[in-house]
Specification:
Layout: H1 23-29, H2 46-105, H3 108-127, H4 134-144, E1 150-158, E2 178-186, H5 192-199, E3 205-216, E4 219-228, H6 236-241
Antiparallel strand pairs: 1-2, 2-4, 3-4
Length: about 240
């Protein structure tokens, strides 16, 4: 038995082939340089390009210089403005000072008088620093003596504002600024120890030493030497000076 033949369909007309893409497009997509395009050639020498780049750099540098100059100009302007303000304030202060000096000139005589008064007060305080009001002191001295006893003679010696008083050489003697020696008379034999006890109440009393006792024409004369210290000073001029 012969093999069976497969029947084929009858051949029809051939299908048209798809058009091919342009050769240049396919080659461009493959990274191949296009042939036949617009020619482009850079004929500038490297020196020209370097000069252009240098020009850009120079322009930027000049812009920086201009910016720095602007900042400096602003700072200088601010400093000048501050200086002008300070000068104006100074001129105003000088004008005010001058006005005050003119006003003070009207009271020159008053200031001179005040300075003279101040000098006098200072001189008075120095000169009166060793003042002792002897009238009051001798009145108090007489008051310490018994009735019938009268002070007849008095010798005074004291320090001065410019000279210190000489101190005693005997031991256990206190500092002194003056010595008072007086003689008192009494119709009866005086009790000198009682006199000495009364003297301790006087201001500035330091110590006292009895002297001689004599009898003349029925009257006893007794001598006493007393030292006084700075508590006897009145101090009134120092108070006025303060």
């Amino acid at each position: 038995m012969s093999p069976s033949k497969v029947s084929r369909p009858p051949k029809g007309p051939k299908a048209p082939k798809a058009p091919r893409a342009p050769r240049s497009a396919s080659r461009s997509s493959a990274g191949v340089v296009e042939i036949g395009g617009v020619p482009r050639v850079d004929l500038l020498p490297p020196e020209v390009r370097a000069e252009r780049r240098a020009g850009v750099t120079v322009r930027r540098a000049w812009m920086g210089v201009v910016g720095a100059a602007a900042v400096v100009a602003i700072g200088v302007g601010a400093a000048v403005a501050a200086n002008v303000t300070s000068q104006a304030d100074l001129l105003g202060a000088q004008a005010e000072t001058q006005s005050l000096l003119v006003e003070q000139g009207k009271y020159t005589e008053v200031r001179d008088v005040q300075r003279s008064i101040d000098r006098l007060v200072a001189a008075q305080a120095v000169g009166g620093s060793t003042e002792i009001i002897w009238r009051d002191f001798l009145t108090d001295l007489q008051g310490t003596l018994p009735d019938g006893v009268v002070v007849t003679t008095i010798t005074l010696d004291q320090a001065t504002p410019i000279e210190s008083y000489a101190q005693g050489d005997a031991p256990l003697q206190g500092a002194r600024i003056g010595t008072l020696t007086f003689t008192a008379e009494s119709a009866t034999l005086p009790s000198v120890p009682d006199w000495l006890d009364g003297l301790t109440t006087l201001p500035g009393y330091t110590d006292a030493t009895p002297g001689t006792v004599t009898l003349e024409e029925g009257v006893y004369d007794a001598t006493v030497t007393m030292h006084i210290d700075q508590r006897a000073f009145s101090g009134r001029y120092a108070k006025d000076a303060s």
